[in-house]
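dumping this here so i dont lose it
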């Protein structure tokens, strides 16, 4: 794998800007959704329903958008990504300007959908750069996402206390502007061009969607859904979870700040880790981190212990978010790699949908302990599925099966 040396300094730095600004924007619109929407008079159930419907629509759109991205002829992947980021920027600018519950609901749903559609495209951009032969350290670049996510989490928590909830869309607009400029500036050799090998692969490509060509990946995707139900419960409802422990919006931001910084060792060392074990192994191992993270938050008696529990972010989300991208890129035919990234992103989105919907119901009708028990249960199921399906000798995504 690549290292962070002179020849790859520029593309890595440019891609670092993309990852950093994307995850900072994601923090504003998703992680602080409860804080912003509660201030607009939404209940926990209404917030969960809005996030769930938005996530469901995003999940339905992700395979279609990714298939379009794989088959672009008049527009490069970079230009297509910039188009979606431009829409994201426009929505953020309009958010504080629209009066009334209905317009706010519709626009916030749009922001939740578009931010999740952009996610697999940012991963595909980095992998396309590497596949084109341009050296890029993906782990170092992705670490910027964790750093900025943590910084923005802490900063937004303080901005809300100081200036109110309208500071969230203002911060989102600034970050989206940086993201758009970063995507437009990201260029590498043969960007948007198609090699003879890629053309030949497209000619052999069968009809149908990704899961029809790789149908044995479906149980693995279900495991990913379970893991991200657990993960997203902890992230979407962080504000509500920390309140019984004596926390407020500032404590929420600080918790997420600690969490994101603990991801950095894995991000920086991942290229070295891939030399020791395959991406498949690291995806398998990541399930344990999700489970113990949820379990730790369930039994935490106070904010001090809650901060310590965030160490499991290293072996959970931080490990998965890198290993899965490499795993898909190494296991899927080039002409379907954007789709492959999108289907795994869709599993994450479905986890968010179910976490938001069920989480809102559990919060309003059973309370935080039941919410955290559910997060632990789903994390355990996901962990067991990954351990079983990715064991040595299993064929999940190893090779493309014959056409159905």
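and the seq i came up w/
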């Amino acid at each position: 794998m690549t290292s962070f040396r002179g020849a790859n300094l520029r593309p890595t730095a440019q891609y670092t800007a993309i990852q950093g600004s994307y995850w900072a924007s994601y923090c504003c619109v998703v992680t602080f959704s409860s804080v912003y929407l509660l201030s607009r008079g939404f209940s926990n159930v209404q917030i969960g329903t809005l996030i769930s419907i938005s996530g469901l629509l995003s999940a339905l759109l992700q395979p279609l958008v990714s298939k379009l991205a794989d088959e672009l002829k008049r527009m490069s992947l970079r230009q297509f990504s910039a188009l979606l980021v431009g829409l994201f920027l426009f929505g953020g600018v309009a958010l504080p300007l629209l009066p009334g519950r209905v317009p706010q609901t519709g626009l916030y749903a749009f922001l939740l959908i578009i931010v999740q559609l952009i996610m697999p495209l940012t991963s595909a951009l980095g992998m396309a750069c590497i596949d084109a032969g341009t050296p890029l350290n993906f782990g170092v670049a992705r670490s910027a996402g964790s750093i900025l996510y943590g910084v923005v989490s802490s900063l937004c928590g303080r901005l809300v206390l100081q200036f109110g909830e309208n500071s969230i869309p203002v911060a989102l607009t600034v970050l989206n502007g940086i993201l758009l400029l970063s995507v437009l500036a990201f260029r590498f050799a043969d960007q948007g061009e198609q090699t003879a090998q890629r053309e030949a692969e497209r000619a052999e490509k069968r009809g149908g969607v990704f899961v029809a060509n790789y149908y044995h990946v479906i149980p693995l995707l279900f495991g990913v859904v379970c893991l991200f139900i657990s993960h997203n419960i902890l992230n979407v409802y962080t504000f509500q979870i920390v309140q019984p422990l004596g926390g407020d919006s500032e404590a929420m931001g600080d918790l997420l700040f600690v969490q994101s910084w603990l991801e950095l060792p894995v991000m920086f060392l991942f290229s070295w880790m891939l030399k020791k074990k395959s991406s498949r192994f690291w995806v398998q191992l990541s399930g344990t981190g999700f489970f113990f993270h949820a379990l730790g938050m369930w039994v935490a008696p106070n904010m001090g212990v809650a901060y310590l529990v965030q160490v499991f972010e290293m072996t959970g989300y931080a490990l998965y978010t890198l290993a899965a991208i490499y795993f898909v890129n190494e296991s899927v035919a080039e002409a379907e790699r954007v789709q492959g990234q999108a289907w795994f992103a869709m599993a994450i989105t479905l986890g968010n949908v179910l976490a938001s919907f069920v989480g809102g119901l559990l919060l309003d009708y059973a309370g935080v302990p039941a919410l955290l028990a559910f997060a632990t249960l789903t994390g355990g199921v996901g962990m067991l599925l990954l351990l079983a399906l990715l064991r040595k000798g299993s064929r999940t995504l190893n090779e493309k099966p014959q056409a159905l």
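Confidence is low (pLDDT under 50) at residues 1-7, 191-208, 400-404.
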